[in-house]
What does this fold into?
Amino acid sequence: MSNKEFKRYTITSALPYANGPVHIGHLAGVYVPADIYARFLRLKGRDVAFICGSDEHGVAIELRARKEGVTPQQVVDKYHEQIKKSFEQFGISFDIYSRTSSATHHKTASDFFKKLNDHGKFVEQSSEQFYDPKAKQFLADRYIKGTCPTCSFPEAYGDQCENCGSTLSPAELINPKSMLSGESPVMKETKHWYFPLDQYEEWLRHWIVEEHPEWKSNVAGQCKSWLDNGLRPRPMTRDLDWGIPVPLEGAEGKVLYVWFDAPIGYISATKDWAASVGKNWEDYWKNEDTRLIHFIGKDNIVFHCVIFPALLKADGDYILPDNVPANEFLNLESNKISTSRNWAVWLHEYLEEFPDKQDVLRYVLTANAPETKDNDFTWKDFQTRNNSELVAIFGNFINRAVVLTHKYFDGKIPSRNELTERDEEVIAAIRTYPEKIEKSLEQFRFREASTHLMDLAREGNKYLADTEPWKLIKTDQSRVETIMNIALQLAGSLAILSEPFLPFTSDKLRKMLNQTEVAWSMAGGLGLMADGQQINEGVLLFDKIEDETVEAQVQKLMDTKKANEAANEVPKVAPAKDEVVFDDFMKMDLRVGEIKTAEKVEKSNKLLKFTVDTGLDVRTIVSGVAKHFTAEEMIGRKVVVMSNLAPRKIMGIESQGMLLFAENADGSLKAVSPDKDAENGAGIA
It folds into this structure.
């Protein structure tokens, strides 16, 4: 970024796929840091457009629709509303949360494509694509699974391996299979419109490496890897039913590639927002005085740093992203978050199970953000950070300051009198924190910024502990007035500086302090809280989270893991026996029988003695099933009897046949029972 002062900011957050709910990985990687930054800029008095919306096209939507047995439109309608509501309840302060199914977006994306095509920016090219002859459909990359050539993960998609993060093409997969039919796909010719990304390689290298050395190392490293491997033309259309139709003659049955369509959603959403507030959308996308910043996860780096900028460059009228502060992945209890395996903490469930604790999760995800490497969320750390930091430090300081002010001065802010060296120290410290936090935020170091915020609360706690106003009140009220004035000035700064991180807490605190005017520039000063100003009664900002609460969440995850293991377990069955000829099979006389009596065999814990009506006669059969069935439950049951098995003595009892049972992989037995209306003696063939 240059040192120029920008007049306005366009901040985008990756469009979440409307094929499922939002989870903590999405929040930590994209939406919480983006919201912190947007809130910070607003407090600075900047002109901000914070843009997001649901990505409602692409293969992921079709896959979800097939899985749920509904239409793609029903899928996106359901999840768009759920995602939008969850973001609102969580305090993500988008200026607009739009959707790519809107009429504005369809027109914007179509017009963008037509302009590039009219200016010769695409190359029409026929090529062989993967095709599922059984499903009679061309296969998008996400419809193909196979073994990753990089890490050997057997469930890699045709566009990306979710295990190692490698970007792939279907042709690179080992043993690819169609997700529609499970069959091996074949190659079939089709025509598409390709964007010659290779022609922009040198420009991209200069723009990223030379013009933006300040980009995060993980972002720059991934971009450099792509560039070093050489860019290739990329098709901007797909053979799909769901999506924005390619707006050209001869393109029937084809839609715009989702990664062409989706980023343009930022532009179309800005159009709708600007129209609603009486602004010119072009100022936010075509004016060099605007700073464009994309907040994304690391799996979207190439699309936002290579493909989308190249498309904007090809158009020629748009500004380019000034920074793309992508985060790495957040894991959950040492395992990768997986939506398909339900290994996640879902935002909508958190909001239900932890009411009024939005800021706790916001704080924990920020303090543990995966900014430069993958990080891990654990419920134990969630509990510890709440109890040891939010409750014991931040909440404790505010509670002390407000309660003591009401106790000693009837809730009115006392005057600041003669200052001691300790007072001067804490006043000097308070003044440094707005700049510290601002510097961290401007460099997208949100973890560091949240640490500074908590350190300011620590200053307040330590100041009260060192000065002990509760001991001085009887002997030196003037001194206590000064102490409480300084403590409340610090609290006032906390109310402002915490707003980007803890918006719900900041709102409660400002109401407690009767703070009306709020701006970043006011923080750190000593004039925030006027002498004699009345403050309201204190309320607890945070409360302790008990062991049983987090244990229940961990158990919920463990139950999910067990369910996944059970679902993925390959049944073990006994190997097939040697082949028999038909004549041997016909020697067996299998008939329907009915158990008339049953009893345990003395001195045996395995055997039951049955009297069985075979239709031919009533006979005694001994069977080793006592560990699996009680005698009582067997009486009256229809069974399959091998009636011509030679008699043999078992524990001194002559057994005249055999009852048939099924044995599961775990050794348990299940009865093989004919229908109740099957007649005794009926042959089984």
User: Anything to note?
Assistant: The mean pLDDT is 93. The first strand starts at residue 8 and ends at 13.
